[in-house]
Structures are given as structure tokens and as C-alpha cells.
Amino acid sequence: MSTSLGIIIILIVLVILFFLLWRRAIGRLLELGFRKSSLSSRYGKMTEQFMPFLKNYPYNPEKFRFIGSPIDGIQFEDDKIVLIEFKTAGASLSSDQRHIAEQIFQKRVEFKEIRIG
Fold first, then answer.
1. Which of 9, 18, 30, 66 is disulfide-compatible with 73, CB 3.0–4.6 A?
2. Cβ neighbours of 71 (radius 10 Å)
3. pLDDT score recorded for residue 111
4. Distance CA 18, CA 15 (A)
């Protein structure tokens, strides 16, 4: 009986140890995923500022103004103003960006001069 009790105690200790190691591994995986996502986001924000200077950018980069959020920037042309969002590969617009595009397509855009003082 004492041998079987010893085996049971060893198995319980091993299960607890395995559980703790598994939990630690999951924590590290989540942390690595967050770091990768954060790094990717920072890389994206950085590269967005250089996009207007690429040779295939269709406008004059000197007339582009970077905003960063909720859209990347505004292109000021002589005959129009273009709100620009840079995307790569399979990236899609956020819900805020889709909402902005919808407001523009429905011609709900205004210009206001606000004077202070």
C-alpha cells in the first residue's frame, strides 16, 4: 500500500509540475505574440511616414501631411484633397477608417474656420 501511495504522490507532483510549466509556457507565448504585434505596429507606423517618398506614390510627396490616426495622412493637390490610408498585402481598413470613407462618399465633409480670441 505504501508503494502505491508513493506512486500516487509522485504522479500528483508531476501533474502539478507539468501544469505549472505549461502555464508558464502559455504566458511566454502570449507575451511573445504581444511583442511581435507591438513591433509590427511600430514598424507599420514608421514605414507609413516614408510611403509618400516611394517612386510608385502617385502624388507629389511634398504636398502630403502625415496624421497617423485614424488615417495616415492628407494629400493636398491643386484640384482636390485626398485622405490617404496606406495598407500592405491583405490588410484591411479598420471600422473607423471605413466610417471615414463612408462619410466622404456621402459628401458629409465640411470646412470650418474657427477663430479664437
1. 66
2. 19
3. 92
4. 5
